[in-house]
Amino acid sequence: MNSFFAKGSTVLFYGDSITDVHRDRSGFHSLGEGYPAKTAAIYQALFAENEVKFLNRGISGDTTTQLLERYDADVKALNPDYISILIGINDTWRRYDSDRYTSTEQFEKNYRQLLGQIRRDLPKCKIILMEPWLLSSDPQKEMWHGDFDPKQETVNMLKTEGDYFLPTTKVFDEAKKSGATDIDISADGVHPTDFGHGLITLGWMRNLGIL
C-alpha cells in the first residue's frame, strides 16, 4: 500500500451520472454512493492522517459540453491537486433519447479543450482519465456502438494528454475471467451495480499504486 497523495491534497471526481450516483447537490462534500465514495472511504480508512479531501462533481446526464460549461465553478474554483475525469457515454446517449448528436470530432475537440483549460489554469493538477464503456447487458443499446466506439477510442488516444489512465474495459474483463458477467457489472450496460462500482474503485486505486 502507498498513500500516494501528499498530505492535505484535494482529489476531484468529475463526470456524469456514473460519478454522481445520488450525491446531495446541496452538500459541498457529498460523495454520493458510487466509486468516489468507495474510494474515499477506503483511502481515509487506510491513511486518515493524510487528511486528503475528496470531492464529487458528477452530474447525471452530462456530456462533454456540460463539463465545459460548468468548468469554472466545478473545477477551476475548487483548485484540485488531482482531477479524475469520466465522460463520454452521454455524448452518444443524447443522440438516441434527445436527438442531440455530437460527432466524434466535436467530442475530441471538447475533451481537448477541457484538458487544455485544466493545464492552463491548474498547472500543478494531475489528471486521471477514465475510459468510458458500453457493456452488452442491454441488447437495445447494441446499435449505439457505431457512435460510441469511436468516442471510446478517442479517450484511449487522449490518455497521453493526462498523467494517469484507467482502462476500465480491462478492469471489467479481469472480473469476467473470474466469473462475473456484464449484467453483474452493469444491468443496463452503462450504470454500474454496487459490485461494478467496487471494481472501478479497486481498479482506480490499484492504477495509482495505492493498493
Describe the structure.
45% of the residues lie in helices and 12% in strands. It starts with 9 loop residues before the first strand and ends with a helix. A 5-stranded parallel beta sheet has the order 2-1-3-4-5. It contains 10 helices and 5 strands. It is α/β, with parallel strands linked by helices.
Topology:
Elements: E1 10-15, H1 17-20, H2 35-46, E2 53-58, H3 64-69, H4 71-74, E3 82-86, H5 89-97, H6 104-121, E4 126-130, H7 145-157, E5 164-166, H8 168-177, H9 182-185, H10 194-207
Parallel strand pairs: 1-2, 1-3, 3-4, 4-5
Helix pairs in contact: 2-10, 6-7, 8-10
Characterize this entry briefly.
This protein is of the alpha/beta class. It is 45% helix and 12% strand.
Keywords:
five-stranded parallel beta sheet, alpha/beta, 10 helices, 211 residues
The 3D shape can be described as globular
The radius of gyration is 16 Å
Q: List the strand order in the largest sheet.
A: 2-1-3-4-5
Which spans of ≥5 residues are poorly predicted at pLDDT below 50?
A: none
- Main pleated-sheet profile: 5 strands, parallel
